[in-house]
Amino acid sequence: MIVTDGIVMGPRHCAIAGCEAGLLNAQTGVFCQEHEEEMEDRCHMKGCNKNKEQEVEEVSGTKYNNYFSAPRFYFVETICAPCGVVIAWCKFAKAEGVAKILRFLEDVYEDPDSRPSYIAIDKGCALLKHIVKQHHWPAWEPTTRIITWCNPAPLNGAAPNLVVVDEDKEGRPYYKMAFNTQACEQLNAWLGGFQTVLNRMTVSNFDFTMHVLLFLHTQCVIARQEEKRGKKTAGIEEVVENEESNDDDIIEY
What we know:
Blueprint: E1 2-7, H1 33-39, E2 75-80, E3 86-92, H2 98-108, E4 118-120, H3 124-133, H4 137-140, E5 145-147, E6 163-167, E7 173-177, H5 183-191, H6 195-199, H7 203-233
Parallel strand pairs: 1-4, 4-5
Antiparallel strand pairs: 1-2, 2-3, 6-7
């Protein structure tokens, strides 16, 4: 199983449509090096291919679409294992559309044999609809099921691997989801603390820093899992004060 979700953050990139390269001048620039040279003597109004001329008086009430400010990457999408280990991540220049999510999944899992048995995502219904509508389902159907919001943990026996029986403090049995499907949300809560700093970085610095942060997060998750495994082997019972709280799943350094 994998869990995928995203967080709104990202550096600024070139203002030319379709170009996601970093800015030549990260402080005041709006173009990458290639487009900065191309647009140096050109008018910065979109759709105008004329060279710059002397300043003229602006026509009152007229609105223009321009290249005066650089756009920002809108989203960082992550794929995590239920334990919290980060598997992959990428930046989306615009909204978190299901088409981009599917392309991201297909890039990460090019080999059908490597695809997960289940995908947990808050846009599960929309993603499943898109996969079927765009005729991608025959490629995914043999290996993968998408957990939908309307039925995340069915009790009719349709997906017994997703549901387990546990006991509350009074010893009464109850059903719960077998896997942590909030791993990415917990990761996003931690990443949010770095959002202000990350948003001010260049694209290359942002990518490097994000790699380092996710690597450190994964190392801490693995160390914590090994500690739990060691306690279980030694017969030491781990006390859980509140199972509904996610505070224990937020990594602190």
